[in-house]
Amino acid sequence: MSRADEAPAQPAVPGRRLLLKGAAAAGALTAVPAVASAAPGRAAPYVNPLVRNRADPHIRRHTDGFYYFTATAPEYDRIVLRRARTLNGLATAHESVIWRKHATGDMGAHIWAPEMHRVGGKWYIYFAAAPAERVWDIRVWVLENAHPNPFRGTWVERGQVKTAWETFSLDATTFTHRGTRYLAWAQHEPGMDNNTALWLSEMENPWTLKGPQVRLSTPEYDWECVGFKVNEGASVIARNGRLFMTYSASATDANYCMGLLTADADADLMDPANWSKSPTPVFASNDTTGQYGPGHNCFTVDRDGSDVLVYHARQYEEIDGDPLNDPNRHTRIQKLGWKADGTPDFGVPVADSARERA
Fold first, then answer.
1. Structure pTM?
2. CA distance 35 to 308
3. Of the residues 191, 209, 278, 314, which has the maximum number of CB atoms within 10 A of its CB?
4. CATH no. for residue 102?
5. Given 56, 137, 144, 171, which residue is catalytic?
6. 318 catalytic residue (yes or no)
């Protein structure tokens, strides 16, 4: 693949990021029955942590009956894939390496936050990567596999998702709403005093934006600006006549937390004025359950069609050294509840559990 065009001189993107993340909507957004929220602090009927040492998790349930799992490996050098018939089964499922970073040039460093989506009868993986020689020039890239089984066939490098600027960008997720496919991602806007904001665009094809791109959210509240000024890792779920877009904010230590944007299902999603923003985090560290820095979530459903929240968190607050070098962000899952007003009830990150459901 050819090297991306060199970026023109721009304000420097704030340097060494404490590991960023990704999330993910699972293709078409079809409403399923809402479920009651688990009581705060009560262990969910799942094994937690579900997958150790895997951050930025993305789980999708496909029509073949399998759950597919991918996530950031702490070495930042490869894309991995698992599948299982149950969510708990992902914990012990065989893990395959389906792609490795390049030795030199583009996609040679910081392989972050992969998401796998099914679009037009093919598999696509969106992920962040940087050139081996410029490891902080991180951009969004796309792989494609035409084989029905993503563990087989050939993963073709479709190239970089080109946005309005050649700046720090990552955490792409794709979803459809009323027949239109969108891409949401995080990117640094030249001249803005932040690390990343959230952006949205319609798509021409699975690796090309149709444009224009619009900014949906920028870090503005104190809880979004601890350590770094970050909005990233978007994921979308459509329920109860609305679209809910979660995202993660602040540095990726115990300050990492999740925010929420909401739009009416009938609204023009490309008009930022149609998205409202929660003034407080909807999911954050919890001393009682011993979970810290929950974020970079996605949504899936259990075998009964009930909503499940997928995210990563650490089991301790204090980190020795740079959080980027700490490998212990583990994938976790729990029931996603719904309030009487139709909005999501995230509760708190559940405590570690050894209970298992068949």
1. 0.87
2. 10
3. 314
4. 2.115.10.20
5. 56
6. no
